[in-house]
Queue: 4 jobs
Job 1
Amino acid sequence: MLNYRRKVFALTAAAACALAVPAFAQEVKLPSTLTLTAYDTGSSGFNIAIAVGKAFKDKHGTDVRVLPAGNDVARLAPLRGGRAQASMMGVGVYFAQEGVLEFGAKEWGPQPLRLILASSDCNAIGLGVAKDTGVKEVKDLRGKRVGMVVGSPALNQNALAVLAFGGLTKNDVKLVEFSSYGAMWKGIINNEVDAAIGSTISGQAKEAEASPRGLIYPPAPASDKAGWARVNKISPYYSPHKATCGVGISAQNPVELTNYPYPIFMVYASQPESLVYSLAKSMIVNYDAYKDGAPGAAGLELKRQILSWALPYHEGAVRAFKESGVWNAEHEAHNQGLIKRQDILAATWNAFLKTNPPEDKQAFLKGWMAARAAALKAARLDVIFE
């Protein structure tokens, strides 16, 4: 089985010194224009894309266009169609790789995606819980009301993963559905629900903290190996993270929580090695040019990268990591394992399409998920979604 545990490796001072500017200037060749997709205008992902784009313009003369999009399908479609080269995505990249949820539709299927860099900043993404519930640990949520958002399966998957840390399933809590993310968080303030998934620095979390109910984020310490094994069984993209900013959290009062990188700078596997290498190398060397350009951009620093994550790195990014001295044999083995998983999923998808699957969307998805599960089990890989 693949090991999805977080492994962050720091860039040494010696490696940093080895990145000579003259050599870098000769190696990096960015195109005159570059198109990226990102979350909606005003989102942190969009703002970070703008900041990185400005650095590309200032350092290489590259004009960067950022296309805002409201969902994962809309963000990936321009890349798939060749109208954009890269995207600042969210955890939807994992669902696209796996061919699940909205990517289990006939028009999509598992996608061959690759990682360049991803941002891990001071915040974390976990279950915010009303303080007046008396909950101190995740396991204390048994019997409490937990928010779910209709039409947001990825968001709901995250909530279930955090519950799993405390040994809880959806049957151990009372699930309360809301029409939107914002409505769910308003539900905490209005005493309609006790817990909701979200970032420690979100406006909604701060609003809930200021309400009469108050808000806390129960910890998920990395030392609890059994708890983390349960989390990763549901959401392999989650990793332990010491949050130092957000509701009730600071550098002086850090809390170990669940987290995954955001935004995730990624491409399709078919993008040229030379282009992706230049993107990664420029972002590593020119970090100071964009790190203060938008909140969260500092999280793209090389030493904050999770080099054994749930999505494989592009060969161009791997080349840049090797030159920086942070890529080792363990990372390579993990990366090749993820690529093998993608190859199995792609072959299974193509074989499934040849079976004349049903036109009905739900029946199609059910058939595909059964074929997917069988193929992954046969390869002795984690199924995750069943």
Note: The mean pLDDT is 91.
Job 2
Amino acid sequence: MLHSIAGYRRPDGRFGIRNHIAVVATMDNANPTVRRICSLVKGCVPVCPGFGRGEMNEDLALHDLITINTATHPNVYGVIVIALEDRTAEYITAEIARSGQPVAGFSIESDGGTVEVTARAASAAIRMLQDAGRLRPEPMPWSEFVLGVECGGSDGSSGIVSNPVTGRLADRVIQSGGSVIMSETLELLGGEEILSRRAVTPEVGARVRHIIQRTLDYAAEHNLDLMGANPAPDNIAGGLTTIEEKALGAIKKGGTSPLVEVLDQGRRPSKKGFIIMDAPAPGVENLTSIVAGGCHAVVFSTGKGNCSGHPIAPVIKISGNPATAATLRDNIDVDVSGVIQHGMSLDEAADLVENKLADVCWGAMTSADMLSEIETAASRILRTL
């Protein structure tokens, strides 16, 4: 039985474990203004994309989807939208307003430039923070909770310690009625048959095989050397030699529960249980995608180390590598290296991570939160013209 948790109920009935005011840049040239607003008004979090200006077709659709789904995440109480020009400001603001969340939008071109927009947006953010402070948490059922599971900077310890530990916690969340999203499509290569056998229907199993084959076809079409990029140099230094070897360790973080759904990048689940999202493997892009999908918090398993966090959903770093847990002690939230060093069982290690997750759900900050090591980024397919 998992620890009890509380959350903030949203107008659409969902619960959030945070009550953020998100200041969202709709494109990269609004990022400095967003960061300036957040530096002035404590309690706001910046959501700053890598691109946005000049994007087209699939790239623009994905960018807008991730922007809107991140802004309307249940961990967010209200939103300040900052855009360069009117059309984007109006469109994104209107889409967010449909969720019932408080939102105010500003155009740098039409609302007086960056200094005037900073002042007006900061004033709006203060009012939202005052309103958010009146909202009280209430008991939150685990059936409303979505856990993200991620791994990065993997090494030999990841597949035998931190990923299986994460998988045990994932199964506990699902057994309590919640959901778990796992992603990093490239790092499923070699594990597709194992995952397909867990699918609740043949169609879901076929979907797993499809997203992996599509990744391979894309690489072949563009003459990409998958081995040149994955495993990464730090993975190889940590003892991993092939993508398949890496994948067989990586899929352990998804536990053993039946696979109920396979999502496109940034989409929200329509079912509860174990879910796979088709999204890129690099940490920042993957966190951006699964949090847009609705993950309340993420357990991030690392062997060699990784410092990535997210502005909206807390990211809990765990490591089973004794050297990493010691060297990166300011970045690792839960040290599970006792499995290797002291004979701790995987279930006992999962208890440690479960306790940390409960603390975080009740408001405790993660290392990435404390150090403001938070970023977002969405993939691009097309070059800018």
Note: Residues 142-370 form one domain.
Job 3
Amino acid sequence: MTEPEPLTSDAQMIEPPEEEMTEAEERISVATAFQLMWWRFRKHTLAMISAVVLIFFYLVAIFAPALAYVDPELSEAQRGLMPPQKIHWFLDGKLSPHVYAVKGARDPQTFKRVYVNDPETKIPLQFFAKGFPYRILGVIPGDVHLLGVKGAPVEESLFLLGTDVNGRDLWSRLMFATQISLVIGLAAVALSLFLGVLLGGISGYFSGAIDTVIQRVIEIFRSIPTIPLWMGLAAALPRTWSTQQIYLAITLIISLLGWTELARVVRGRFLTLREEDFITAAELVGCGKMRIIFRHMVPSFLSHIIAATTLAIPAMIISETSLSFLGLGLRPPAISWGVLLEQAQNIQALAISPWLLLPVIPVILAVLAFNFVGDGLRDAADPYG
């Protein structure tokens, strides 16, 4: 019986054809972590829209002096609680933006001061008009404003969002309030981020007694009721302090408890990462402890830190608004969303002047936008998920 012939060398060398990578797969294989994060974030429609809203808010904050058409501190008791004016865009069928002049009078029955539009007196609006001098970011001088009027003093003619009790223009004050409220949120989060990453990283990397001490400190901070603590610390601020000193103190108070949650997240990640091979390799080549923490460990989950930071900003904004609304945060002459809303505490004034609640709208929009962007970043932080 003849034995079967062995397979030829050609048959032995037959291998299944290798699958070629598509262009999309090749892009993903060589992409950095931040590229993957950006590609996935772009698919989150609500987060992208919210990001555009936040960019708009911060542009308003940067160019607030140019968007305001009068000095936000300029007051006139005769113009107190004036209602918002409506812009009329057409005149005799042609584009001609204007507002009607407003006249004040006393109601003969209630003796309450009322304001009546005078359709016969039309005040034309002018874009990019000259007004009070200012400095963008405290550096770039200018005196051109987005909106002004022709042939009349702007402080006596234009009240887009009405005025407050002291006759100060609410539109101009809202522009400056946006600047302060958004910046104080970023400053507080930056300080919380620094403390959270530093103490959380040290706690997770060194463990042992250091970890125990830091965790007990975190538990003590987290066990204290947040609002009473903030109110107590804010109420202890001397009334003689300047606006800048109170601004700095409120930032410190708001960030005092904001770092604990991030510190716990960082600690948990560090406990996992310190056993990885690349950390062992860094230790073997003689890298210092701080270099390992900030050069090797923190960048490995930086995307998660960014997402957590974005979600923390709205909490800081609400904290400042709440403290200022209660009269324990920023105080006049400082202007913030909370300071503007402080006048809305009076139910009687609010009943006859509902426009005093208008600063609530940017607070809600900013908080929602930050939350949606944070959700998008949190989902995008795991691009392989």
Note: The radius of gyration is 30 Å.
Job 4
Amino acid sequence: MYIFKTPAGTWAFRIDVGTDPRTGKRRQKSRQGFQRKKDAEAAARELQTQIQRQSYVMDSPLTFAQFTKDWMERYRLTVKESTYKARIPDVNALLSQFGKVPIQKIDLRTYQSAITELSKHYAISTLRLIHNSAQMIFKDARRYEIIAKDPTEFARLPKAPDSIGVKLPTYLDREQLEEFLEATKASRPEQDYTMFLLLAYTGLRIGEAMALTWEDVDFSAGQITVNKTLFYSAGKYKLTTPKTRRSNRVLDVPAVVLSALKSHKREQAGARLAAGSHWHKPENYIFTTPTDPGRATNRSYWREHIKAVLKLCPDLPFIHPHSFRHTHASLLAEAGVSLEEIVDRLGHTADGVTRKIYLHVTKGRRKQVAEQFARFMGQ
């Protein structure tokens, strides 16, 4: 601690505040303008106490985005490339909340508000991954003495919704699905039948299906790779990563779906040839809009096409694109597939909706199991 008098006649101090952990250089803090020497000494001692309690950090203009960029570069050197890439969507979610905010300005209240906002757009399982990324980033900022407190330390994540009380979503049973698909095949464009068949037989989210390109289909292996989705944001659709980390998956596809896809590919080849230079490139989407050849479709496009089929099937319940995902889950449960296998195929965790569908569909089978056990015991 060095106390001295300035040329202006006031008192000042200069004190060592440690070493910069990134550069190894000595760091000092000085203040001036004190009218009395003992005031400068008292301020210096207070600052020393803060340093000893590890509650002092040098002022830094670094934004969260700037620090996170450096952190990501360091993180990339410590993990596999696949792990690094899997972390990117979680970090992007954090950047959307306070990318330009100075990192020293992010306190518990700011961070908690960001988590609350993100919970409106992400599943609780994904929110946990985002929170984990934030913990790693702020811990590193604390280690580098850029922040005095970690804002994630006492933050609380929203409680996962209880499956009890979750309203059972609309889905089609096997006979209803057959009726819907038959009506589609008889009255709608070939592309509609292929899309609805694909959704019902794979459980893909509509955004995942719309984002599929022909490169994602391995006809010889009978598989589809799901690694992207079309996401609506700021008035337009954007290609982005799937909803959750588990959504990146490779699906085995039934032969009937592969056959429909092959037929659709031939149909599309003819349409592409007819459109010539007007065909939009280079995305190579499987499902395209007729009004803008080669462009991907959107959700409203498929909602309207579903409504058109439902007009021909008045006895069927009202459904939307996501209903096919619930339909797939219910049919898998009816076929005897376990809940763990179902959620793995759907590419998510066992949320309340999926669990409730499973319990509802398998209720009869559970009763049969109980009766079978009773018979075995001679009762």
Note: The two ends are 88 Å apart (CA to CA).
